[in-house]
Design a protein that fits this description.
- By secondary structure, the protein is an alpha+beta fold.
- It contains 49 helices and 22 strands.
- A hairpin with a 7-residue loop joins strand 7 (about 765) and strand 8.
- The longest helix is centred in the middle third of the chain and has 32 residues, at about 610-640.
- The chain is elongated, with a radius of gyration of 48 Å.
Length: about 1500
């Protein structure tokens, strides 16, 4: 940099040597000179105004001033015993230097004021004598000398700051003086408490601060800069040099960043005193020039690792030659600080790198957000790369091999040559022994520089991890970086985690997510490092100067693990090249690393104690199992396709692992379970709602080599499933049960595992059906049973914890465990055919509903339900248990129904049924045009205060036999169900056989008229008198008793009636004998006319026990039917016009949760909502993988034919063919493969308990939302009361005082006194406001072309496109801070990088996706969907007053009961049953 400029080092040496010769008094004896100095200086000092008022100087001529200066110059060199005299000399010169000030002191001689610069230069040179160390002085005198030196330095610095008259020559003299005193104080080896040790920091700070000031006032010449660089090389054994160098560099860097990157760039925060180092008037160009020169001031910091080079000066050689026992120069004790100095230097460089990357200061978060405006990696490496690469190699193989060559080159450096010129009297030729590492003292061995090396490699990792999307890094830098990493990642024999390894892991969390060319060559090294750090519970860190947080270290290691988990299956048998080994050596393949990665993951999960780390590992575990399962499915699909099996389509109907819900309903075969063999019959799969394939089959080669086949058997998907299930269940019970987030993550993982259909290696079931190309399912039944047992045990343990432990978090885990149990039972319905498993599950359900088990231990007598007190853990727990019970009874093995997964309710309502109804007149449902007319044909009853029964007594159109028929619509908490029932006296198989011959072939009757004998009719058998009467026989009174009670007149009337009846009967017999219809006349029998009039509703209610009015309180005979909740049946008045509207609102309340995910595509550099929305038009291009991902999220459905959740509340849950949405405009400018904005199509997915819609908004959504808002404003006030029930649970449901225990396990008894009090919500929530500030979560899925664009994603602006219609019903509009955003970025390798943003709540982030995870395209749809569902579930769990869908429906039913109930007596109810509907 300054090679063509001359150094001023010789001038400094000359000034240092000649300072003693400036005074003429040196020609005289020292005692004589001392006497003169004392006399002259004492007189001069009295005029300064220190002890008395200042007086004008008597020195008026130049000769007089120069003579006095000769005296003062000699006085400054006096021994320190003459402290007062030296002090007076210092005071005089300091006062005279004010001549350069704007206002000189009065005591300054006139000649000095007239030519201030000339005299100032002489004074500055004379000051050199003061700083010369005195030999053999005591510590007190040295401290006095230091005080005087401080005074001089302060005066010189002040003069430089305020002087306006200093010329270039004076500035050069001042800078050379500062260099000279630093040289004389700092160049010798450090001696503790000498004057150099005491003044070290001060003289350096004054040198640098005055130098910065000179850069503004009079920029130093290149020769001065070269001299400064050479001098600093002589002082590198001083700790203060590097500290002051770092201080000035950071201050300059802060100013440099301000004007280089603008005010939006993250400001570098430094201390206020450091920020004042930079003079105010320094221009931007001056800052840049000064910054670069200061950066290169101390040379290459790696020279600090070579004591031979640092000690290659005359001062060290002189010390070695004069040492008593003889020593080498590099053995001086002060050099023991070199490792710390080296570390400080590298830390200073690292701080500057952090500043350019806009990283926060040391001690902030480990993985901060990088600035978008940061410079490119190449630019930073141009500045610091050479030093960092060399520092990273220290102690490595390359360093050890080249050490001798580096030592030889160091002796030829320009600084060494100059030192020889400056100190030519001493030879610097070093013997070969100095280059021998064995000659170094133990404190200077190369391993002592480990901390600096770790800092250097960590800084390099930070630089390369700052690579932007699409940024190119020079291959030479990549190669050097990979070589450095490979050497630093070498594991020692002790298997310890040293500081270098820890630094790499801490700072390279993103290294495998950035599309770095050739980064995978480091994969074996990183895996070896992870094997040391993650599986060790008590990790031993071998550190020297840096404190490392073990939790953060493990977290960073887990991030690396999550970014490489999918690589083995992604690259298959692709070999991994070794950077250094011979090519003939057998190379590793990616698939061979899979088992090692799985072991790391499992072992890490087994020993991890931090909640966040465990959460990340659980997400990674589900990713591994999911990816393995999907990979094996795709492999099998490829094999079947290539072998031409039956000419099947390659895109066959392989069920996606995470979304398949049909489980055993699609299986034909036998499963051995619990000692029983159960035949699993295949159901009719001809439904029009088959589950489509949601799996992307990447281009997977099926020609696997022997390497894949030789992998250990535990490495397949089935082994992973078994191992993961066992490990997670075990840790959930043993150590995770007290942590909310970890418990939820573990239960989410178990739910995800339940949905996987694992292909076992030894027994594979293949079913080929006309409607199913190929179905694969074979699960380990015992493992599934064990998993359900463990989850149930977890619920039991949580419920049994003492009352102080029962909290909102505890109950949230119990609710999540019930949901997890439901997932296992739905996917594995055969579990309920096992007696033990069924009993375990039902006991847990009973525990959740009632709070206790009927049989706490085996062998105990069961406690009946009317003897138990109903005390569930909480209302939420009871609701979850009821939901599980309903799923067991109604859905397990039957979902999806023939209606498809879009609905768990019947798709029939009153209007649809009436269209198929056949009236007695045969004219069909003529006149039924709307819902109100259809409802009028039904009779409505309510049972258990939670279920509405709608009874239609008219037969449907497909009825062939005139039988008592009733069509029943059941609306309960868990949906709407339709049934048609007939009262038949014979089964259909027998009653359908009829004889239709015209001549039945009846024999001819006998016409003989027999004589009817006269006989006395007896009312009782003959032996009745012999039977001993009982009390019941006397319940019928005799004639005598009636006569006594009612009188003889009544008996007379009865006798008259009997006589008249006898006469009428005789006349009737006589008439029949003479009629043509008598037996004496031949006439064929004809069947009676078919009866079409039945009171089918009465028959149904009677047969099913709803009319058992005898169930009353026997102690209260006056009670007729009891209060409405106690009545077995409540009649509803359907004549009110609002009844149909309320019934429709009930049908609009889904029995499942519903969520919406909004999908956006962001092109590179897009930051506005209009640009992002504009991507969804036909003329825009997009990544084809984006469209493929959409297909894996859900099933495309037509909104007009869809009866489930559509993403818009106004057209969801409508029956097919009766869609109520307004006419939509045709969308012709959106590609069909991404046209899922909700206008015509939407992506939909559902299971038994939840629905989710994926909407891809475009400009239509904004217009539609605006229209819906305007339409909803008028009706908002009327519906506000019912809408508030969505997110809050009412404390009571109206004037009713009690609620029945619906869907619980108890049997109602007649003894009402034993009826337990239903549970109510805890008193702690009574005071909560009715309006809860928590709306449904907004979830965005964003595809990024450039990963950095996530920093500027306009969430707030895009909320206007993400509306469902529920916002007006909720208590507040959604905020951007409450939104969850899942960013997906496509890497060049074909993998996908995930970034998660969301509110900072305790339960915000759900699994399986984890921030920073790298996915395969095979599983992205499944994992994104599961994460979105789990985010929504967690948000509901976090709201203690959230009402599950079945509770909302139950409350709506109770609201209908209160509005339309008819208080009928027993007689009025029976009469109502005999009335026909209108």
């Amino acid at each position: 940099m300054y090679s063509e400029w001359a150094s001023l080092s010789a001038q400094i040496s000359a000034n240092s040597c000649g300072a003693q010769c400036f005074s003429v008094l040196n020609k005289f004896p020292a005692s004589a000179g001392r006497e003169v100095v004392i006399s002259v200086v004492k007189q001069l000092g009295t005029n300064l105004g220190i002890t008395q008022n200042a007086e004008p100087s008597h020195l008026v001529k130049d000769e007089e001033v120069k003579w006095c200066m000769d005296v003062i110059c000699f006085g400054l060199s006096l021994p320190l015993q003459e402290h007062e005299t030296i002090k007076d000399c210092v005071n005089v010169y300091c006062e005279w230097l004010t001549a350069l000030h704007p206002q000189p002191r009065i005591s300054v001689p006139k000649p000095i004021c007239e030519d201030a610069n000339l005299y100032a230069r002489q004074i500055i040179n004379h000051f050199h004598n003061l700083f010369v160390p005195r030999q053999g002085e005591s510590s007190d005198t040295i401290k006095r000398q230091a005080v005087l030196c401080h005074r001089v330095l302060r005066t010189l610095q002040q003069t430089a700051q305020i002087s306006q008259h200093m010329d270039r020559q004076t500035w050069d003299t001042l800078l050379l003086f500062l260099l000279a005193i630093n040289e004389i104080l700092l160049a010798p080896p450090t001696v503790k408490d000498d004057v150099g040790d005491q003044l070290c920091e001060r003289v350096l700070s004054v040198l640098f601060e005055v130098w910065l000031l000179a850069c503004v006032r009079c920029f130093p010449s290149p020769s001065l800069w070269k001299t400064l660089q050479e001098s600093c090389a002589m002082w590198r054994h001083r700790v203060a040099l590097v500290d002051q160098w770092n201080r000035v560099n950071l201050a300059l860097t802060a100013r440099l960043l301000e004007f280089s990157y603008g005010p939006d760039f993250t400001q570098l925060k430094i201390a206020d005193e450091d920020s004042q180092l930079i003079p105010a008037g320094m221009s931007n160009d001056c800052v840049a020039q000064t910054w670069y020169r200061f950066l290169r001031m101390i040379g290459n910091p790696t020279a600090l690792c070579s004591p031979h080079i640092i000690s290659k000066s005359s001062h060290f050689v002189q010390w070695a030659l004069t040492h008593e026992k003889g020593a080498e120069t590099h053995q001086h004790p002060c050099l023991q600080m070199l490792p710390q100095i080296f570390l400080n230097a590298i830390r200073g460089i690292s701080s500057q790198v952090d500043a350019f990357l806009a990283l926060p200061s040391i001690g902030a978060e480990l993985r901060p957000t990088l600035s978008v405006a940061r410079p490119k990696c190449n630019s930073i490496l141009h500045l610091f790369g050479e030093w960092l690469f060399e520092a990273a190699h220290i102690g490595g193989d390359t360093w050890l091999q080249n050490r001798k060559r580096q030592a030889c080159e160091a002796s030829k450096r320009p600084s060494s040559m100059i030192m020889e010129n400056r100190k030519g009297s001493i030879s610097l030729s070093q013997p070969n022994s100095l280059n021998d590492p064995s000659s170094l003292p133990p404190t200077l061995t190369i391993d002592k520089y480990e901390s600096g090396r770790a800092e250097a490699i960590g800084t390099l990792c930070k630089i390369f991890c700052a690579k932007k999307t699409g940024e190119e890094i020079l291959p030479v830098y990549l190669a050097r970086f990979y070589m450095a990493l490979q050497q630093c990642l070498k594991i020692t024999e002790s298997k310890e985690c040293d500081e270098t390894l820890a630094s790499i892991l801490l700072h390279s969390a993103d290294l495998f997510r950035l599309d770095l060319d050739g980064i995978n060559v480091l994969l074996p090294g990183y895996i070896a490092a992870l094997e040391i750090v993650l599986p060790d519970k008590d990790l031993k860190l071998k550190t020297q100067a840096t404190a490392i947080n073990r939790t953060e270290l493990r977290r960073s290691a887990i991030n690396i693990l999550l970014s490489i988990m999918v690589l083995p299956l992604h690259y298959h048998t692709l070999p991994i090249r070794n950077l250094t080994s011979d090519s003939s050596e057998k190379q590793l393949t990616f698939i061979q690393l899979k088992s090692r990665l799985m072991n790391i993951l499992m072992n890490a999960l087994q020993v991890e104690t931090d909640a966040q780390n465990t959460h990340m590992l659980l997400g990674g575990l589900l990713l591994c199992v999911q990816d393995a399962v999907t990979f094996e499915e795709c492999e099998l699909s490829g094999n079947e396709h290539l072998s031409g099996a039956g000419g099947q389509n390659h895109e066959d109907n392989l069920l996606s692992s995470a979304c398949s819900e049909r489980s055993a309903s699609l299986v034909s075969g036998t499963v051995s379970f619990g000692g029983q063999t159960t035949a699993m019959s295949s159901r009719d799969t001809a439904s029009a709602h088959e589950y489509p394939s949601l799996t992307i089959s990447d281009d997977i080669s099926v020609d696997f080599t022997h390497d894949f086949e030789s992998i250990a058997s535990y490495d397949n998907a089935h082994a992973l499933f078994v191992r993961a299930t066992y490990l997670v269940c075990h840790r959930l019970i043993s150590s995770w049960k007290t942590d909310l987030n970890v418990s939820l993550a573990a239960l989410e993982l178990l739910s995800g595992l339940a949905r996987l259909h694992i292909r076992e290696t030894d027994s594979l079931v293949k079913i080929v059906e006309p409607s199913q190309n190929l179905t694969i399912i074979s699960t380990d039944a015992l493992e599934c049973k064990r998993a359900v047992k463990w989850i149930c045990d977890y619920i039991c343990y949580q419920c049994s914890r003492p009352p102080p432990a029962h909290s909102k978090d505890l109950h949230s885990t119990i609710v999540a465990a019930f949901q997890c149990t439901a997932a296992w039972l739905m996917q594995h319905p055969y579990l309920l055919q096992d007696k033990d498993c069924l009993q375990t599950v039902l006991e847990v359900v009973e525990l959740g509903i009632s709070g206790t088990k009927s049989q706490s231990k085996n062998g105990d007598l069961p406690k009946f339900k009317d003897e138990k007190e109903l005390k569930p853990a909480s209302m939420r727990v009871r609701d979850a248990a009821e939901n599980l019970l309903t799923i067991i009874l109604e859905q397990v093995g039957y979902f999806p129904s023939e209606c498809g997964p879009e609905s768990i309710s019947s798709l029939l309502d009153e209007l649809a049924l009436m269209k198929h109804c056949t009236l007695p007149s045969g004219d069909g449902a003529v006149g039924v045009y709307n819902a109100e007319q259809a409802i009028s044909k039904f009779k409505y009853f309510v049972t258990e205060n939670s279920t509405i029964l709608a009874l239609l007594e008219e037969p449907l159109g497909n009825d062939q036999d005139p039988q008592p028929t009733v069509t029943l619509l059941i609306r309960g908490p868990f949906g709407r169900h339709a049934w048609t029932m007939q009262l038949r006296h014979l089964p259909r198989s027998k009653s359908g056989i009829k004889y239709h011959a015209a001549n039945p072939g009846r024999p001819i009757p006998l016409n003989d008229i027999t004589q009817r004998p006269e006989c006395e009719q007896k009312n009782f058998p003959e032996g009745v008198d012999k039977v001993q009467p009982c009390v019941a026989d006397y319940s019928i009174p005799t004639i005598e008793q009636i006569r006594e009670q009612y009188g003889s007149s009544i008996i007379s009337d009865i006798e008259a009636m009997l006589e008249n009846q006898s006469i009428h009967e005789k006349l009737a017999w006589a008439e029949s004998d003479n009629s043509v219809d008598s037996l004496s006349h031949a006439q064929e029998c004809v069947p009676p006319t078919v009866c079409h009039e039945f009171h089918a509703a009465r028959l149904f209610l009677s047969h099913f026990g709803f009319l058992n009015f005898e169930i009353r309180n026997p102690n209260n005979p006056v009670e007729s039917l009891g209060t409405p909740p106690q009545r077995p049946l409540i009649v509803l008045d359907t004549k009110t016009s609002a009844f149909a509207a309320d019934l429709d609102k009930l049908d609009k309340l889904s029995a499942r949760t519903h969520d919406t995910v909004y999908v956006f595509y962001v092109k590179t550099g897009q930051t506005s909502a209009q640009q992002i929305i504009g991507n969804m038009t036909e003329d825009q291009s997009y990544d084809s993988h984006f469209a493929n991902m959409l297909q894996t999220l859900g099933w495309p459905v037509q909104v007009s034919d869809h009866s489930g959740w559509t993403g818009f509340v106004n057209n969801s849950w409508s029956l097919k063919g009766t869609s109520e949405q307004p006419e939509r405009t045709q969308q012709s400018n959106v590609p069909s493969e991404i046209n899922y904005n909700g206008a015509q199509r939407v992506l939909y997915w559902a299971d038994v308990s939840s629905e989710i819609a994926f909407v891809v908004p475009n400009a239509w959504n904004m217009r539609y939302n605006s229209e819906m808002d305007s339409c909803s404003l008028s009706s908002t006030s009327s519906e506000q009361s019912t809408a508030s029930n969505v997110w809050t649970r009412a404390e009571d449901t109206g004037p009713m005082k009690s609620k029945p225990r619906n869907l619980s396990l108890e049997l109602d008894t007649g003894n009402r006194n034993k009826e337990p009090v239903p549970p109510t919500r805890r008193k702690g929530t009574v005071s909560k406001p009715a309006l809860l500030a928590q709306a449904p979560a907004k979830i965005f899925l964003v595809w990024l072309e450039s990963f950095e664009d996530y920093l500027n994603f306009p969430v707030e602006d895009l909320l206007a496109y993400a509306r469902t219609g529920e916002e007006l019903q909720s208590m507040q509009m959604p905020r951007a801070a409450d939104c969850h955003v899942i960013f997906v970025h496509s890497l060049q390798s074909g993998l996908l990088r995930v970034k998660l943003l969301g509110p900072p709540g305790r339960m915000s982030f759900a699994t399986p996706l984890v921030d920073g995870m790298v996915l395969s395209r095979r599983v992205v749809g499944n994992l994104v969907r599961q994460t979105a569902l789990n985010i929504s579930r967690r948000r509901r769990l976090d709201n203690e007053s959230y009402q599950p869908p079945h509770v909302r429906r139950r409350l709506k039913v109770q609201d209908i009961v209160q509005k339309y109930k008819m208080d009928l007596s027993e007689a009025e109810l029976l009469a109502h049953l005999f009335q026909r509907s209108i």
